[in-house]
Amino acid sequence: MPLSKIIVVGAGPSGLLLAILLAKAGINVELLEMTRALDTNPRASHYTDSSCREFERAGVLDALIARGFFPNGVSWRKMDENRTRLVRLINANPDTTDRYRMVCLPLDQLGILLEKELNKYPNASIKYDHKVVALHDKEGSPVTLDVETPDGVSQFSADYVVGCDGGNSTMRKLLFGAGNFPGFTWDKQIVATNMYYDFDRFGYDDSQFFVHPEHWHMVAKIQADGLTRLTYGEVGGLTHEQLLERMPMKYATLLPGNATPDQWKVVNFSPYRVHQRCVDKMRVGRVLLAADAAHLCNPFGGMGLTGGIADIGSLYDSLVGIHQDKADDAILDIYCRERRRIWHEQINPISSVNMKRLFSIDADEIVEKDPFINMVQKIERGELPPPPPGTPSVTEQLMYDMTQHYTKA
């Protein structure tokens, strides 16, 4: 039976992407966002091969490629005077015709592209300044949300409601309570900044991780004009004001060339706590969770955004299968099971190792002690053959094809 309407809560990249895909399939979509505009805080900016496949399905990959750029690779380095490179993974040749290679663009600019695309569909709408405050899912009736709007509290109803409202998800709290989010919070804090500095004269790659017990950090070019994401670790428990006060000291330590404040320019500053958490259920009745609303991980390696976009691809195929009468409602239980399995078996362990690698192993010993870094060095030396054609990448393994569970012709 065709679906009459789906409500998506949260206008981040995952919510916008899901709304576009559903609208393209002819399903009426209402996107509710509690803030008055798209988020501009420094967050993810690297979109992998698997994510690009979903952007292609949504019709925005060409626009993303036109505005973004293809990074030349990623390296791991020491925090010595010369910022010595330990190992390097080179990305695909920028001249390749492969459309599904990693592309970079700040997340707020991606949001603008997605919003522009969604606005093309008359069966979709975005309502800003709409905060969900209550949820009603009574069998035999549509799912109903009580929503605070500029004109007072109103009710919105749909066949299904999808929470894509981020790590502080209201939808998750309404389903499970404010304190119920299994997992743990790291005792270290992260500060994400967007900034300009002349890294090229020091031989930096487009992306690199620095291994150090105290001054571990990441430097990644995220825009063709040289805008750079500098994300560094800090001690836990500091306030926003304390972290901001410490930033010039951290920059002077992290940046090469004895940098002084007149040589760098900070565009955004965003400290945040880091979590490894996943809900016990991503489906409760006709309410579903996806991306950061359902699970969180640290940002090193891009597993959070990539895993969230993979959620959206699987959930879209599930919902459109129901809409087109190719699957029944039970497919959503499989969505819940498989997406949680992928988080526990891949996203959580890989992202945890990615973060620990930066501060828990001595940089002089990392090549010998870290199996991944050792493998990268062997690849550099030509001691390991390339993977056979058709071998799925690590990020492609985060995807799950729900169409194999369609039960009707």
TrEMBL record:
- The FAD-binding domain extends over 5-342
Could you list the residue ranges that cross the membrane?
Answer: none
Return any one Pfam family short name: FAD_binding_3
State the source organism's domain of life. Eukaryota
Q: Which UniProt keywords apply?
A: FAD, Flavoprotein, Oxidoreductase
Specify whether Phosphoprotein is a keyword of the entry. Answer: no
Q: What is this protein called?
A: FAD-binding domain-containing protein
Instruction: Give the organism, scientific name.
Output: Sporothrix eucalyptigena
